[in-house]
UniProtKB/TrEMBL annotation:
Pfam families: E1_dh (PF00676). Residues 300-319 are annotated as: Disordered. Keywords: Oxidoreductase, Pyruvate, Thiamine pyrophosphate. InterPro entries: DH_E1, PDH_E1_Alpha_Subunit, THDP-binding. This is Pyruvate dehydrogenase (Acetyl-transferring) E1 component subunit alpha. The lineage of its organism: Bacteria, Bacillati, Bacillota, Bacilli, Bacillales.
Length: 319
């Protein structure tokens, strides 16, 4: 989990820099190296890693428009993923989907890019698993803002009625774009809504990766054994804006520095440093390996070619 969290953080830190290449600082004007909008998950690593450590390639994961941490934790091919974000032909979707539409059938990962869009897809995957008599589960990651969308409630109602192996992970980073959760949501945490559907709910405080690991372990075991859906809400922190270039006028200027003092990677590293069977050399080896994989992925993307214009509609009409 520590190595995965380091990999995610380093990946997002690198993307924050690469994304600005060729763009003006104001409103990110210009195509640059990486086209389109960019939503980074720096600070939200525990939600993805704490859950995905319990999953296999046969389990389905759907992600929202802030998907990199979920994709990395699920085992999406890092080189192909980065090439896709760069818009290169070696990408997962041959450069046609980009950052908000990452798909990797090899590990059953998909990103819809629209608020709440992944939950119905996860319900479909969970229903498939049940109808085929498999023990695979489906996990839908969403932001707390999506818990107020119709797809959330409709999907959970069906998942409860059909007793499906579905887990919805709500990442509460306090803001739906720029709107505070307190101004948009009538309950303190969305796991409380589980009782309305007669399903299980769990709440993880303080962006704690170990607590997320334990809550996820129980939810996955429940789903695999036919005990139905679970809602997990984790209190997490978005260190960066809703998108790269977000002026963040809605935030107090001391908010992010204060949150970084509670950084989950730092806390996990301190805990591991105190463990008898983990040395500083072990931690350094994990960090080096994680960063090397990220560096190789970025270099692969830079070295790859852009799709040829005549190939723009390939796999569209014949799919």
């Amino acid at each position: 989990m520590y190595e995965q969290m380091v990999k995610i953080r380093y990946y997002e830190d690198q993307m924050a820099e690469v994304y600005m290449e060729g763009k003006t600082p104001v409103f990110n004007i210009g195509a640059g190296t990486v086209p389109g909008e960019m939503h980074l998950a720096t600070g939200q690593e525990p939600a993805a890693v704490g859950m995905c450590v319990h999953l296999t390639k046969e389990d389905t994961v759907t992600a929202p428009h802030r998907p990199h941490h979920h994709a990395i934790a699920k085992g999406v091919d890092l080189k192909k993923m980065t090439a896709e974000i760069f818009g290169k032909e070696t990408g997962l979707g041959k450069g046609k989907g980009g950052h908000m539409h990452l798909f990797d059938p090899a590990v059953k990962f998909s990103c819809g890019g629209i608020v709440g869009a992944g939950i119905p897809h996860a319900v479909g995957a969970a229903m498939t698993s049940k109808m085929k008599g498999k023990d695979s589960v489906a996990v839908a990651f969403i932001g707390e803002g999506a818990a107020n969308a119709g797809s959330f409630h409709e999907s959970l109602n069906l998942a409860a009625v059909w007793n499906l192996p579905l887990i919805v992970v709500v990442e509460d980073n306090s803001y739906g774009i720029s709107v505070s959760k307190k101004a948009s949501t009538s309950v303190a945490s969305n796991d409380l809504r589980a009782s309305a559907y007669g399903i299980a709910g769990a709440y993880v405080k303080d962006n704690d990766p170990i607590a997320m690991y334990k809550a996820s372990e129980q939810a996955v075991a429940r789903a695999r054994s036919g005990q139905g859906p679970t809602i997990i809400e984790i209190e997490t922190y978005r260190y960066l804006g809703h998108f790269q270039g977000d002026p963040e006028l809605y935030r107090d200027e001391t908010e992010v520095p204060g949150l970084r003092q509670l950084d989950p990677i730092t806390k996990l590293k301190m805990m591991l440093s105190e463990a008898e069977n983990v040395s500083d050399a072990d931690l350094e080896e994990m960090e080096t390996r994680a960063k090397q994989q990220v560096d190789e992925a970025y270099q692969f993307a830079r070295d790859s070619s852009y799709p040829q214009p005549e190939a723009a509609l390939e796999d569209v009409f014949n799919s």
